[in-house]
Amino acid sequence: MGDKAQGRKILVVAELRGETIHPVTFELLGKSREIVEHTGGEVYSVVFGSSIDKAKASELIHYGADRVFLFKDPVFSVLNPMLYAYNLVKLCREEKPDIILMGATCFGRSLGPRVAAALKTGLTADCIDLRIDENGELIQVRPAFVGNILAHIKTKTKPVMSTVRYRVMKAREKDESRSGLIIEKTAEKLFQDRIRLVGEAVPKRLNITDAEIIVAGGRGLGSAEGFKLLGELASLLGGVVGSSRPPVDDGWIRKEHQVGYSGSIVKPRLYIACGISGSPQHLFGMKDAETIVAINSDPSAPIFRVADYGIVGDLYQVIPLMIKEIKARRSSVG
Amino acid sequence: MEGLKTSLKTSVLLKQLLNIIVLVKQVPDIERVKFDVETGRIDRSSAPAEINPFDLNAIEAAVQIKEKMGGFITALSMGPMQAVSSLRDAVARGVDDAILLEDRRFAGADTLATSHTLAAAIRKIGSYDIILCGEKTVDGDTGQVGAEVAQLLEIPHIYYVSRIIRVSENSITVVSEAENASYTLESGFPVLLSVTRDVNKPRLPTLKSKMKAMKSEVKIWHAEDLSGFLDLDKAGYAGSPTWVQKVIVQKEKTRQCRIHRQVEDGLQELMRLLEAKGLV
Ligand SMILES: Cc1cc2nc3c(=O)[nH]c(=O)nc-3n(C[C@H](O)[C@H](O)[C@H](O)COP(=O)(O)OP(=O)(O)OC[C@H]3O[C@@H](n4cnc5c(N)ncnc54)[C@H](O)[C@@H]3O)c2cc1C
To answer: Which of 3.40.50.2300, 1.10.760.10, 3.40.50.620, 3.40.50.1480 is the CATH number of A3-185?
Structure first.
């Protein structure tokens, strides 16, 4: 009785960062394959870029797409969501996907709503799980209220659209023997395009979302100086420095380092929180780390409730000792 | 040189001042709000309501633009009558006019239905150069309404604005953030900007401005007031394509913390951990 057709055609909107396809795209393709294996159907992907070629686009096939729509045009060198949306909406009207997925990244969260509004359909933000229920309908699971609740959302209209958080779904192994179709499309331009890039994009030096080891500091550092100490530990461990919000507000460290609700969501193998109390907004960004270590002078700090290991103490005593110990071990081995 | 300056000044004066609309939402104080574990419902009476923290930055951005360029700021919100208090707060923070969209038929709206209602009101307001909103709301947490409104109004939008570099009488230059890079973008008007918490530090309202705001009039627009601008089938619960099938209150994911009060012991354990992870 249910509409099994809902999973028939899934369109994954690929995200390009510079010349590379961002891995969230491959994760979405992996999830889409899982869904169509269950419901039957096909996985489509679309990619927009100024210099993307067929060879690059075929990666989308290797990760699970059956068909790829390729929009190659210099106009896509600036992320102007209005222009991207215009072309994407046109494609959706032609291809009529049942489900459209994008990463819950700056790109997807800016583009998705425009497309949803144009297609008069629902969009569910920042999903952490997607499942097909017994009626063949898509259930979109997302956190709300700073992660305090999980909502199961359904969409009455078609296509069903969701943005999906990076690093929650699994990409499949790249399979270069997979074959599929690449269809080149012509970009439509907008008549009055008001948005213009001034100068060059300024690349960010830090990619904290992908970091495996993070040594993070909070207000407990007391000053910008503290980050030098954390930086030394981080580089010894091959990791990067993270921060809670207050040090960013006070200008001790750049925003790119901020972890949490208004910063980045991270999922490292090891997160060492120093002088961070563990507010809900901070935990939102790091609670899924594989191992959490907390160093805090206050034994009642909430961070200890989510940590695997904790040291109650002054970070200015503990961290230098740690650094010394690591160096000592390395030199005795080396 | 002097002449040029004067002529620029007069041209600013001659031109209509900038019309700015700020989208504002009232939300429960997220630190204190309680959830009914059984039903998964949010008990809104359990916590005081306030302006969505991200929207404070949007209001401040509007006020700063007005301080530079002159202009008129309208705060626009959709919500229950209680939201009047948040709009008064917006007035205290420097907006000139406040409108609340209140109607039973607007209730239960998802982001698309909310956007249809807000866009209708903006069309009714008629003239606008800049629409500002916060990055997201702390209760809904989608960040979708801004771009949906922009699409419905057929105007461009720029998300994740972390800095406003320059405003002129017909364009604005901002820095927009993405994960891997920052972009400086210039846009003509009208444009919708969604600002992050980094764009400014919102000032606190003064006692005097609070007093003044208490007496200010908040306009209430019901469904009838938007007739001709809003298709009611697209508003409220009935107009919402998404619906919440189930809500689960998350139990705090606690871990068994091996906590050390002796720094030496803790250190030894940490070194074992680093070893196990292949880091030393
Ligand atoms: C809308 C909104 C968004 C937000 N987004 C974020 C976000 O993305 N990320 C974020 O982190 N926060 C965010 N916050 C802020 C958040 O609510 C907290 O204020 C913040 O996380 C607290 O940071 P902290 O733990 O560093 O500081 P505090 O809570 O002040 O904690 C400092 C800790 O350091 C300890 N300490 C002090 N001295 C020492 C010492 N010498 N050695 C060891 N320990 C010491 C103290 O015991 C204390 O536990 C947001 C807030 C709002 C309203």
So the answer is: 3.40.50.620
Q: How far is B220 from chain A (nearest CA, A)?
A: 26
Q: How confident is the model at residue B250 (pLDDT cuts 50, 70, 90)?
A: confident
- Cβ contact A138:A39 at 8 Å: no
Please name the member of A18, A153, A329 whose beta carbon is closest to the beta carbon of B242: A153
Q: For residues A53-65, b (16+ Cβ closer than 10 Å) or e, as one string?
A: eeebbbbbbbbbb
Q: DSSP 3-state assignment of A182?
A: strand
CA distance B272 to B280: 9
CB B47 within 8 A of CB B40: no
pLDDT in tens, A262-305: 999 999 999 999 999 999 999 999 999 999 999 999 999 999 99
**What span, in angstroms and rounded, lies between the C-alpha atoms of B115 and B102?**
14
Atom of ligand 1 nearest to the CA of A295: 43
β-sheet bridge partners, residue B157: B192
Alpha helices (H) along chain A: 23-39, 54-62, 81-95, 106-119, 226-236, 245-249, 280-286, 303-306, 315-333
Contact A234, A220 (CB under 8 A): no
pLDDT bucket at B260, cuts 50 / 70 / 90: very high
- Are B279 and A110 inside 8 Å of each other by CB? no
Q: Which pLDDT belongs to residue B88? A: 98
Q: Which of residues 77-96 of B touch A (CB under 8 A)?
A: none
Nearest residue (CA) to ligand 1, atom 53: B53
